[in-house]
Structures are given as C-alpha cells and as structure tokens.
Fold:
Amino acid sequence: MGRKLSFSHHHQIRLFLLVILSSLVYIIYLFAVPNFITSFKIELRHSYGSLVGHTDSTDGSEKHTPLQRNASPKYKFLRDENLQASRHLPDALIIGVKKSGTRALLEFIKLHPNVQAPSSEMHFFDKNYVRGLSWYRNQMPLTLEGQMTMEKTPSYFVTKRVPSRVKKMNPYVKLIVVVRDPVTRAISDYTQSSSKKPEYLRKSFADLFYINGTNVVNTRWGIVRIGLYARYLDTWLKYFPLSQFIFISGETLIVDPAAEMKRLQDFLGLKVIITEKHFYFNTTKGFPCLMKSETLASPHCLGKNKGRIHPKIDESILDRLTQFYRPFNLKFYQMTGIDFGW
Ligand SMILES: Nc1ncnc2c1ncn2[C@@H]1O[C@H](COP(=O)(O)OS(=O)(=O)O)[C@@H](OP(=O)(O)O)[C@H]1O
Structure:
C-alpha cells in the first residue's frame, strides 16, 4: 500500500512538471515567434538597419535611440565604435531627366561608401508633398556622420511646383540633371510607354508626334515636351544658381561611365572612389555594368527594362524631331556652358 502511494505521488509530480514545462514552451512560442518574424521583416525592408530605433516628434525633429540598445549582430561594428546612425533629408537630388540614365547614375553613385540613397523614387516634391518633410525623411536610409543622403525622382525636373518646394527644404541642395539627346530620349520614353499603356500599341510614334494628320509637331505630347530642357531649366534657375547644378551627359555615361562619375564625385565633394575598376562593358546588353553593386558582390547589370530595344522610327520623323529640338538644344548649351553635341 505504502509503495503504491509513493508510486502515484511520483507520478503526480512528473505530471505537474510536464504541465509547467508545456506552459513554458507555449509562453515562449506566444512571445518569441511573433517578435522574431517582425524583426525579420524589418531586416528585409531595410537592408541597412531600421532597427536602430527612431521616432518623429510632433515638431518634426528626429529622436534617436542609441545603437547600444540594438542587439542585432549587424550593428556590432557601429556599437563597438559607439557610432549613431540617423535619417536625413537629401543633400543632393537627381531631378531628371526621365529616360536619360538616371537609374544607372544612382546605382553607380550608391557604390560610394559616403552615399546613401533609397532605391525607389519617392515622388515627394510632386506627388507626396502633403505627407510632409518628416515622412520624406523617414523614407531615407540611415546615414552615419560623413555620409550624404541622395534621392532620385526624374519627374522633378519637369514639374512646375517642384523647384520652390525643393528650395524650401534646402536652398543649398545639390541638383543633378542627367540629359540625353532629346530625340533618343523621346523614343526611349515612347518605348517604355508602349510596353505599359495598351492605347500606345494602336498608335505609332508618327500618329502621336504630329497633330491630327498635319505636319505640325504636337508639343502638348509629354514625350516631346520633356525634351525641351532649356524651358525647364529656366524655371529651376529662378530658384537656384547654376553653380548648384551638375549636368551629366547620358551619352558619356554609357561610353565612359568613370569619366562622368569622376565629375559627379568632384561636384559632390566626395573622394573619387568610383573609377574604371568598377565597370565592365557587357557586350550582350550593350551597356556598361558594375563589377559589383551595393548589394551584390558579383558582376551586375541594370534590369531588363533598362536598355530596351527601340522600335524603328521613320527617318523623316527623326529629322523633323532633330530640327524641332535644335533651337532649344542651343539655348540649353548656352545656359549650361556645355555643348552636348546633339
Ligand atoms: N549602364 C546602363 N545600363 C542600362 N541602361 C543604361 C545604362 N546607362 C544608361 N542607360 C540608359 O538609361 C535609360 C533609362 O533611363 P532612366 O534610368 O533615367 O529611366 S527612368 O526615367 O528612370 O525610367 C535606358 O533607356 P532605354 O535604352 O530606352 O531602355 C538606357 O539607354
């Protein structure tokens, strides 16, 4: 009887321990797994650490949480060095021009250790302005002291309300404009639009280029209008001095990317780190590619929507376009002091 009692007593203790252990496992599951998933998602969203806590105060200033609080191994170096990372409004903007090589330029300059930039176009000054500057700053990647922040949205160059808004953010911001022969630019833009908008498939370049069967150039067609660089620059120059701009040749960016990158690094006051060594010419793509990108250690070209095959456009239309742009191009050379040779 005594042995029986002690057996059931042991049995009860084991059962009790099992219940405690299962409850513990359940509690750990409840708390730890969601936390793990959340932090994993955050890591994915920001390749360069948004786990460094920061919040926006109502007055728009930014508060930082010390890196020491972040246990992620990614920040070990920063913690060891007692460095703090924070988000800043852009010091430089790639404002345009659409289809001139703005993505290539951004990818190339992002290789510089002192440059941080979001990959996507923020469209802050044209479409998202109501969200406010603190929203814009929150979209920027973290930077350390000595690093500059950059953003590119090519529609800024041609949107009337943008220059005054940019000036309000920072009157000393550096402005980067990539330009390309407006004829090639128009065809590139048309090629992209045809791939996106089905209505373009039913109309040829000629249909859209001339006003209803006449031989009058349709200057209301955005694809033609964007190439009037002198007009848009004129608006920008009402707000910023020419010395705050750099004009990058889209053509040179393809044949000699290192030369344009040297000009850009000098203009931004950066040590020239991106040189010929960073590029190779990919004959299949027909464009320069990077030996390594910001995220990939292997040779890397821009995506397949950059460097598209253009449709054949009638010679007479090309001549007409060239003539049409000529006076505007000359004016642009005069304003910038650069003959782009178009
Ligand atoms: N290295 C490299 N690789 C691929 N493409 C290159 C490169 N350098 C310049 N380009 C030219 O960039 C054109 C696209 O311009 P954007 O990046 O400014 O286009 S966008 O406005 O952001 O849509 C793109 O236009 P398309 O050829 O019409 O696709 C290219 O001609």
